[in-house]
Design brief:
Length: 308
C-alpha cells in the first residue's frame, strides 16, 4: 500500500520556484527521508502534504485522501512535528497532552488514558506535572512527538525533528521513531540535514535540491552513485610502501603516513586481488581498511549551485 503519493508538485513565491515538480511514492509502514540543504524545498513539501499550504500545481494523496478535495480526511490521518517545538511552556507535560486530546475530540477518560500511556512510552512520567519551561531540549522534543501521537496517526511528518539536540537525545529520538514504525506500522516522512540520521533511519532517501529530486534510493544505492571507494594500506617502512606502490598504477602514495590508497569498487573480488598482488610480490602491509563513499559524499556531489 502507498501511504503518500505526489505527482508534479510545484510551488513558487513570487519569482522564486521553491518546488519545480516533484514526484513521491512512499509505501506504508516505512521511513522515507527528504535530504537536502537549506532552501531545497523540504519544509514546503511537508507543508503541502500536511494541507498547511496549497501547491501551485500537481496532485498529492496522503493515507488515501486527496490533500485538496479531502483535506479533513488527511488531517485526521496524520501527525506533524515541525522544526520548532509546539508545546505550551505555561503548561505541564500532562496538561499539554490533555489539551491535545481535547483538540482531537477524545472523551475525557480516553484522553487521560492516552496521555498516561504516552508519558510512560516517552519516559516522561516522572516529569508529568512539571512545567515545560524546566525541560531540556531532548525532553521538549519527546513531548512534542508524544503530542503528535495523541490522535494515533497513520502518517507522521517529522520536519528536522532532532535539530539542536545533543547526540544522546538524538539517538533516543531515533529509537522512538524506529519503534513507531516497527510496532505500530506508522509511515514516517522525515526531513533532515543530518546525513547520519537519514542513513540510520530511512528505508529510502530522496535528495532534494533546487526544488527538484536529484536522486532517490536506499542509502546503499545512493552511495553507489558516487565514486570514491578505496582500499587503504599502511606499511611498516618506506621500502615496503615503495614496493607496493609499484604494483598499482593508480594508487596515491603518502610517504609521511606510509600509506597507499588504491581506488576501487571495494568488492570482495577487488580486495582479494589486491591482497594476492601483495602476497605474490612478498610485500607485507601492516593494516588494510576498506572505505566507501558515504552520504556526505552523495550530498556534496548531488547538491549545490555547481550541480544545477
Amino acid at each position: 500500500m502507498t501511504a503518500i503519493s505526489a505527482t508534479g508538485l510545484t510551488k513558487s513565491y513570487g519569482d522564486k520556484a521553491v518546488l519545480a515538480g516533484i514526484d513521491l511514492q512512499i509505501p506504508a509502514g516505512t521511513v522515507f527521508a527528504l535530504l537536502g540543504p537549506n532552501g531545497a524545498g523540504k519544509t514546503t513539501t511537508v507543508q503541502i502534504l500536511s494541507t498547511l499550504i496549497p501547491a501551485d500545481g500537481g496532485t498529492a494523496r496522503v493515507a488515501g485522501h486527496d490533500v485538496v478535495r479531502e483535506a479533513d480526511g488527511v488531517r485526521k490521518a496524520i501527525g506533524v512535528t515541525g522544526q520548532f517545538s509546539a508545546v505550551d511552556n505555561l503548561l505541564t507535560a500532562e496538561e499539554n497532552l490533555l489539551l491535545m486530546a481535547d483538540l482531537n475530540h477524545l472523551r475525557r477518560r480516553e484522553g487521560r488514558r492516552r496521555a498516561e500511556e504516552l508519558l510512560h512510552r516517552f519516559d516522561l512520567a516522572g516529569a508529568a506535572r512539571t512545567p515545560v519551561t524546566t525541560f531540556s531540549g531532548g525532553m521538549r522534543r519527546k513531548l512534542d512527538l508524544a503530542m503528535t501521537l495523541v490522535g494515533d496517526p497513520e502518517v507522521i511528518f517529522l520536519d528536522e525533528p532532532t535539530t539542536g539536540l545533543d547526540p544522546r537525545s538524538r539517538r533516543t529520538m531515533w529509537e522512538i521513531i524506529r519503534g513507531l514504525v516497527a510496532d505500530q506500522g506508522v509511515t514516517v516522512l522525515l526531513t533532515t540535514q543530518y546525513l547520519d540520521e537519514a542513513d540510520q533511519l530511512a528505508d529510502r532517501i530522496a535528495v532534494l535540491d533546487g526544488g527538484r529530486i536529484v536522486a532517490e534510493g536506499t542509502a546503499e544505492e545512493l552511495k553507489r552513485i558516487v565514486p570514491g571507494g578505496l582500499i587503504r594500506l599502511r606499511f611498516a617502512d618506506a621500502a615496503q610502501l615503495g614496493a607496493a606502490a609499484g604494483l598499482f598504477d593508480y594508487a596515491a602514495v603518502d610517504t609521511e603516513a606510509l600509506r597507499l590508497d588504491i581506488p576501487g569498487d571495494n568488492s570482495v573480488i577487488t580486495v582479494k586481488a589486491v591482497l594476492d598482488a601483495l602476497d605474490n610480490a612478498s610485500v607485507r602491509a601492516e593494516s588494510l581498511v576498506v572505505e566507501t563513499a558515504d552520504l556526505d559524499d552523495v550530498f556534496l556531489t548531488l547538491t549545490g549551485e555547481g550541480v544545477r
